[in-house]
From TrEMBL, chain A:
<dbReference type="InterPro" id="IPR005823">
    <property type="entry name" value="Ribosomal_uL13_bac-type"/>
</dbReference>
<dbReference type="InterPro" id="IPR036899">
    <property type="entry name" value="Ribosomal_uL13_sf"/>
</dbReference>
<dbReference type="GO" id="GO:0006412">
    <property type="term" value="P:translation"/>
</dbReference>
<dbReference type="GO" id="GO:0003729">
    <property type="term" value="F:mRNA binding"/>
</dbReference>
<keyword id="KW-0687">Ribonucleoprotein</keyword>
<dbReference type="GO" id="GO:0003735">
    <property type="term" value="F:structural constituent of ribosome"/>
</dbReference>
<protein>
    <recommendedName>
        <fullName>39S ribosomal protein L13, mitochondrial</fullName>
    </recommendedName>
</protein>
<comment type="similarity">
    <text>Belongs to the universal ribosomal protein uL13 family.</text>
</comment>
<dbReference type="GO" id="GO:0005762">
    <property type="term" value="C:mitochondrial large ribosomal subunit"/>
</dbReference>
From TrEMBL, chain B:
<protein>
    <recommendedName>
        <fullName>Large ribosomal subunit protein mL43</fullName>
    </recommendedName>
</protein>
<keyword id="KW-0689">Ribosomal protein</keyword>
<dbReference type="GO" id="GO:0005762">
    <property type="term" value="C:mitochondrial large ribosomal subunit"/>
</dbReference>
<keyword id="KW-0496">Mitochondrion</keyword>
<dbReference type="Pfam" id="PF05047">
    <property type="entry name" value="L51_S25_CI-B8"/>
</dbReference>
<dbReference type="InterPro" id="IPR039927">
    <property type="entry name" value="Ribosomal_mL43"/>
</dbReference>
<dbReference type="InterPro" id="IPR036249">
    <property type="entry name" value="Thioredoxin-like_sf"/>
</dbReference>
<feature type="domain" description="Ribosomal protein/NADH dehydrogenase">
    <location>
        <begin position="35"/>
        <end position="108"/>
    </location>
</feature>
<dbReference type="GO" id="GO:0032543">
    <property type="term" value="P:mitochondrial translation"/>
</dbReference>
Length: 191, 179
């Protein structure tokens, strides 16, 4: 074939992906992003060949963690000196740097070989949707999110809320919203 | 000796030889032998008894006889592609030499080397080599990323949806009952 050399370039060309981390679990996301960083989504994948793609991640400040993870998940660090150990909870690390949790999640997910640092350099993390133009114009495809974004109550219309099936009605004096609580004169006099 | 230092090739054939027609690749064979030494005896016997049969059967092969005093006998084969192969036939019997001669006649002239893969093709792919844009929707070329449709998890019918559907039906039947 006449253009074998050019076909080779096309086959091994690096493509750029974008991923929206809004309300996504960082650990589940890392599992998916590693596939693209390593190039496992390509039919030509081989662990020794450096054919990973670039991944641009936006909205890292809006990642979500399940259960009590924001308080209870801890990141460990040791400087190597005696007494150099420290641990930081997830919320605190996120407060210090809102791209750090995803960075650490992906780094620990990647295989510990010589390609790891190089693959990490192809991960571009942005706390919000503001991405420099020279990066965004490279993007050719999007990675699907790992979990459904929960719909908050204020996004539902009044009609939807009223039509939601109920087994019973709350009694009149049951307080759901304390800001709308009526003043009760019987109890008020004791204070 | 490591396997990487042994010469290696891919499986190959000379001009699709044997597919449709066969051209004998052996063009010239030289018998080097000594007239008096004992280790050339098999070679001398071969020349006396069997060589004419070989030449009759293979008119396309030029045969040379080179008597060389006090040297060990050998067969030197030269091929169409310029390849050259020699086999020392010292102390070999008439039949053994015949076997090696047949071996040389059947060869393509390509040097024997470690073959990397048991199969080979000159046309690796009919549909074309894979690249990052094969089987991709061409509308992605004009898409301004990021977009919501490609990002969100596709919605599947949940139990909540089913319950809402049932509740809606019940409400409708309730209304019609009251009427």
């Amino acid at each position: 074939m006449a253009h074998n050399r050019v076909l080779q370039w096309a086959t091994f060309a690096r493509s750029w992906w974008i991923y929206d981390a809004y309300h996504q679990c960082p650990f589940e996301s890392a599992k998916r992003l590693c596939i693209f960083l390593q190039g496992q989504h390509k039919p030509i994948y081989h662990p020794l060949s450096d054919i990973g793609d670039h991944v641009v991640v936006i909205n890292t400040k809006d990642i979500s963690m399940k259960n009590e993870y924001w308080r209870k998940w801890r990141f460990h660090h040791h400087t190597g000196y005696p007494g150099g150990y420290s641990q930081t909870s997830a919320w605190r690390l996120h407060d210090l740097d809102d791209t750090k949790i995803l960075h650490k999640a992906v780094y620990s997910r990647l295989p510990g070989n010589l390609l790891r640092r190089r693959m990490m350099r192809r991960l571009h993390l942005f706390p919000d949707t503001e991405v420099p133009d020279d990066i965004l114009q490279n993007v050719t495809d999007q990675i699907r999110q790992v979990q459904l974004i929960p719909k908050p109550i204020h996004k539902y219309s009044k009609e939807d809320i009223d039509n939601f099936p109920k087994l019973f009605d709350w009694p009149e004096e049951y307080v759901i919203d304390y800001s709308k609580k009526k003043k009760d004169e019987d109890t008020e006099k004791y204070f | 000796m490591s396997s990487s230092s042994i010469p290696s090739t891919f499986l190959k054939n000379v001009l699709n030889n044997g597919i449709g027609r066969y051209v004998c690749q052996l063009q010239r064979i030289t018998f080097v032998f000594c007239k008096q030494k004992g280790d050339s005896r098999g070679t001398r016997d071969f020349i006396e008894n069997k060589l004419l049969d070989f030449t009759n059967n293979n008119p396309g092969v030029a045969v040379y006889l080179q008597p060389r005093n006090n040297r060990s006998p050998k067969l030197v084969a030269e091929y169409l592609n310029g390849g050259r192969e020699s086999i020392v036939t010292a102390k070999m019997s008439e039949d053994e030499i015949n076997k090696w001669l047949e071996h040389l006649r059947g060869r393509s002239g390509i040097k024997i080397a470690r073959i990397r893969k048991p199969q080979h093709t000159e046309n690796p792919s009919v549909q074309g080599v894979w690249h990052p844009f094969t089987n991709k929707d061409s509308s992605l070329n004009k898409t301004q990323f990021p977009i919501q449709e490609l990002s969100e998890v596709p919605h599947e019918t949940t139990t909540t949806d089913k319950l809402l559907e049932i509740a809606k039906k019940l409400r409708e039947t309730d209304v019609s009952m009251k009427e």
